[in-house]
Amino acid sequence: MAEKIVIIGSGPAGWTAAIYAARANLRPLVFEGAITEDNRVAGTLPLGQLALTTEVENYPGFPAGDLESYLDHSLEAARRAGMAPHQKEGVSGPELMELMRKQAENFGTRIVTDDIVDVDFTRRPFRLAASNGESVEAEAVIIATGARANYLGLESEEAYKNRGVSACAVCDGALPRFRNKPLVVVGGGDSAVEEGTYLSKFASRVFMIHRRDQLRASKIMAERAMKDPKIEIVWNSHVDEVLGNDREGVTAVRIAGATDGKKRELPASGMFLAIGHTPNTKFVEGKLELTAKKYIKWTVPFRTNTSVAGVFAAGDVADDYYKQAVTAAGTGCMAALDAERWLAGQE
Ligand code: NAP
Prior knowledge:
Elements: E1 3-8, H1 12-23, E2 29-31, H2 37-42, E3 55-56, H3 68-74, H4 77-81, E4 91-92, H5 93-106, E5 110-112, E6 116-120, E7 126-130, E8 135-143, E9 147-149, H6 155-159, E10 165-166, H7 169-172, E11 182-186, H8 190-199, E12 205-209, H9 219-227, E13 231-234, E14 237-245, E15 249-257, E16 263-267, E17 270-273, E18 277-279, E19 311-313, H10 325-346
Parallel strand pairs: 1-2, 1-8, 2-5, 8-19, 10-17, 11-12, 11-17, 12-13
Antiparallel strand pairs: 3-4, 6-7, 7-8, 9-18, 14-15, 15-16
The structure holds NADP nicotinamide-adenine-dinucleotide phosphate.
């Protein structure tokens, strides 16, 4: 028999959609993603981008404080044991995601630890194929597979992720390790400027490394960066290597000139990537309308509908603008309500 609702993805959007759908007695089935080396390398493991960060200080409801015993009581021992020790500073990304997952489970959400790799939206019920070869039918589908930050692809960059290398200044910029220290931002778009100006509040200096001689950022944003006394734009340059050690994490970034290849080191306790995101939409290409940047297109203003009736999208997979955990959770809630009302209309 077809599932009433299948949710694909396990970030804040997916779990919030599951909590709402479960409480509406829709018995949601969540495909949370597979635990594979390919997904690890791509940054698409279960629990999404938040699981790749450390402290989360901007998700409402988790001020500084010790959650240790709450986590111990809320989560199953086996899953709790696999997590990093609690840092007593509010909540970490992995902790927040485990709590959301558990909350969805508590209301009857069923979870499959696998990827959906293909979909057939031309028939009803819809058919979804998992990577283990099995398929499932669903009357309604919520896609919440998120997006992944683009990285340069250097080995040294990978080695210092979470120890100075980050793709989210808003998430990580205020951490003590970055305060009053020089920092590097890579990119020349609006995000790079936004990250640079945000970081300049904490950093002693911000080097913005851009590969061309002109910013891609909008004029007003570009002017903001150029006027900021703490920001120095390093033109026509790319990052050659991230330097550091086990004790301190990142200590410097080596850059190379685009034309002469000349190398030099910039002291930095962090490197923030702002070279764009890639939405996880490969499996719906040609099946749903996507934007020019391959995000799922919301087809009705202020609703989570997609180009196929009965298929809804939530979170970063459909949002290249806000990209926050709390906005993803918000649209996850919206998608569950939209799906519930759509299903009711079908009966
Ligand atoms: P973006 O506009 O695509 O800019 C990406 C930047 O990264 C470009 O400058 C690009 O260089 C550079 N880049 C890409 N790949 C690179 C690589 N491998 N090595 C070095 N540099 C690389 O992305 P975004 O800045 O994240 O912005 C995304 C969207 O969100 C845009 O529409 C933007 O307007 C919007 N946004 C708006 C605001 C705001 O209004 N406050 C804030 C943030 C984002 P090139 O320029 O050479 O291509």
